[in-house]
Structures are given as structure tokens and as C-alpha cells.
Amino acid sequence: MNESGSASEHEEDDQDSENDQLDDDAMIVMAVVAVTASWRNMRRALQPMHNSKLTSSMSVEEILNGHEEIIQGLISMKLETFRVLSNLLGSRELLTPTYNMNVNEQLFIFLSICAQGATN
Question: Region labeled Disordered — which residues (predicted)?
């Protein structure tokens, strides 16, 4: 009886292993289908994010010439303080303009990155 009992246990174990393998395969197929479907939907919904006609330096200048509260919200600093700091860093050549970016733009980007961590 032990031999037949152990044989049936082995058959049950083999069936369980096959069922587990089928379940795993089914899960993989379902995951691939889900990822493919979401990728296709995402691809259809994509729209250009950077469609402004302004260059980045023009955008920064527009912001710096805008409302004081917006500037302070973006860089956590008053405009007057920003201008003083920008002039100080530029005059001491601690920040120098590059071919692609002026001192105001470099400082604005740095401060906006720093300010992101300071908000909730």
C-alpha cells in the first residue's frame, strides 16, 4: 500500500507542479498583455510637453520679469535677492555665462531644484 500511496503522492506532486507552472505561465502572459496594452494607450495619449516657442533663457527672463509671488514660489527667494546674488556670483566669476546659458538662467535652475525639496 505504501508503494501505491507514494506513487499517487508523486503523481499529485507532479500535477501540482504542472498546475503551478501553468499558473506561472498564465501570469506572465497576462502581465505581458497588460504592459503591451498600457504602452499602446500611453503612446496614443502622448503629447509634446515642451512646445513653447520661447527658449529656456527667454522663459527664465519672462518668469523673472513676472509676478513677485510666482518667482518666490519657484525659487523660494525674493526677486531683489535673486538679482543681488546673481550679480555677486557673476561679478566674482563664481558663475560664468556659457554658450548655452547665462548666469541668471544657471542660478534660477539651481535655486528651483533646491526649492523643490523645500516644499511639501
Answer: 1-24
Query: How far apart (Å, rounded) are the C-alpha atoms in residues 6 and 89?
Result: 82
- The number of CA neighbours under 13 Å toward the Cβ of 53 is 0
pTM check: above 0.70: no
CA atoms within 13 A on the CB side of 60: 18
Q: Which three cell numbers stand for residue 31?
A: 502581465
pLDDT in tens, 62-101: 888 888 888 888 888 899 999 999 999 999 999 999 998 9
* All cell numbers assigned to 3: 508503494
